[in-house]
Amino acid sequence: MLKYRVNVMEELKKAGYSSYRLRKEKVLGEATLQKIRVGSTTLTLESLGVICDILHCQPGDLVEWEESP
What would the 3-class secondary structure string for 19-67 be? Predict the structure, then answer.
């Protein structure tokens, strides 16, 4: 199972990207932002790539695999 290593919304805010800015500049859609807020890891590779571009990181810095119980 995949899970987030970091609070993605918090990291985006630190980088200067509020939910409002992300929507206004059409960087990420509302559905994607809602998935991130609730902890869903069913993001598209495109969305994950956008987040990595903003945060200057690799996908592995954002998510990690955890063995299911």
Answer: HHHHHHCCCCCHHHHHHHHHCCCCCCHHHHHHHHHHHCCCHHHHEEECC
